[in-house]
Design a protein that fits this description.
The chain has a two-stranded parallel sheet. Strands 3-4 form a two-stranded antiparallel ribbon. 32% of the residues lie in helices and 15% in strands. With 99 residues, the protein is an alpha+beta fold. The chain has a single domain, classed as Glutaredoxin, CATH 3.40.30.10.
Length: 99
């Protein structure tokens, strides 16, 4: 995800990893430092509202949300963020072309 975000302007695509509770935020920051992740912000869903509203469970999920806040696509599980199918999904769901 970090490499993908580096390839596209945040005006065009913002990848926002979401920690499901406030406690995990410091763990996420440590993970970012350990793995030299520099292009991604991180946010916390402290009260579980986003997880509840979008029925996000314990398995990693990715929501594709447009600039109006509408969910346009969903991926469940881990993916290769630079694979052709994912890049095509970004183009189809959000009209984001990545070189």
């Amino acid at each position: 995800m970090d490499r993908l975000q580096a390839r596209v302007s945040v005006d065009q695509l913002l990848i926002l990893p979401l920690v499901r509770d406030g406690k995990g935020l410091s763990e996420a920051v440590r993970f970012y430092r350990t793995h030299d992740i520099t292009n991604l912000p991180v946010a916390a869903d402290r009260f579980g509202k986003i997880s509840h509203d979008h029925q996000i469970g314990p398995v990693p999920q990715t929501l594709f949300v447009d600039q109006q806040g509408l969910v346009k696509g969903l991926l469940i599980g881990g993916v290769d963020w630079e694979s052709q199918p994912v890049l095509e999904l970004l183009d189809n769901c959000l009209n984001v072309k990545i070189n």
